[in-house]
Amino acid sequence: MNRTGPFWLDPADMSYAFPPVEQALREPDGLLAIGGDLAPERIINAYRHGIFPWFSPGQPILWWSPDPRAVLFPEQLKVSRSLRKTLNRGVFHVRFDTSFAQVIRACADTPRRGQPGTWITPEMQQAYIKLHQLGYAHSAESWHGEELVGGLYGIRLGRVFFGESMFSRRTDASKVAFVHLVRKLQEEGVVLIDCQVTTDHLLSLGAEDIPRRRFVELLRLYAKP
Q: pLDDT of 6-21, one tens digit each?
């Protein structure tokens, strides 16, 4: 089928189905579908098939499946010398799933260089808080005393973790949370961490690009309920 635009999802469609990811537009960045809703069933089905929601305030819900896909295989985690020193000094105490709502709000509110706003809208926050309550979404948190200074959140399906966003209010705070999370996930048998889109920050931690076809094959094997 020769398409000139993304697929439109019907919010009333309770099958929560998506078109094949091969139909995603290469430009811009793998846009696959528009619309639908942020029901937990739809979001989980999206992740299981290599799709994720990402949109700005005032836009409809946009669903993406980029090719290539940025991933981290846990055994490929890179810890720089300076980061290892921070870890060894115990500057931050890392907790898991103790303040999920606070983490996602911080990810939305913390300014980022080159980004005038946030894509983590109140609607997205509520959707992922619901997923956390259902046991799918998880947070890793760096604390300095009783102050939350860094962290990240994402979705866990079977042996795959889908990273969503991170924030840092002190140097290396988010990286420390990430390293602890990767090590924890590896101990629990997770074989793949989805990073979505490549950045220099992720590359420095060991992330790499793989073809979307391989990514989807890995999901079929490991992203089970």
A: 899 999 999 999 999 9
**Tokens at residue 89, please?**
């000094």
Query: What type of residue is 69?
Result: R
Phi first, then psi: give them for residue 165, nearest 5 degrees: -160, 155
- Check whether residue 54 and residue 79 sit in a common domain: no
CATH number of the domain encompassing residue 130: 3.40.630.70
Are residues 81 and 62 located together in one domain of the fold?
no
Q: For residue 157, what are the domain limits?
A: 70-222
The number of beta carbons lying within 10 Å of the beta carbon of residue 117 is: 11
Specify the pTM: 0.94
Helix (H), strand (E), coil (C) string for the chain:
CCCCCCEEECCCCCCCCCCCHHHCCCCCCCEEEEECCCCHHHHHHHHHCCCEECCCCCCCCEEECCCCEEEECHHHCCCCHHHHHHHHHCCCEEEECCCHHHHHHHHHHCCECCECCCCCCHHHHHHHHHHHHCCCEEEEEEEECCEEEEEEEEEEECCEEEEEEEEECCCCHHHHHHHHHHHHHHHCCCCEEEEECCCHHHHHCCCEEECHHHHHHHHHHHCCC
* Confidence category of residue 3, pLDDT binned at 50, 70, 90: low
Q: What pLDDT, on a 0 to 100 scale, did the predictor assign at position 85? A: 97
* pLDDT number for residue 224: 82
pLDDT band at 119 (very low <50, low <70, confident <90, very high): confident
Same domain, residue pair 76 and 57: no
Mark whether 35 and 86 lie in a shared domain: no
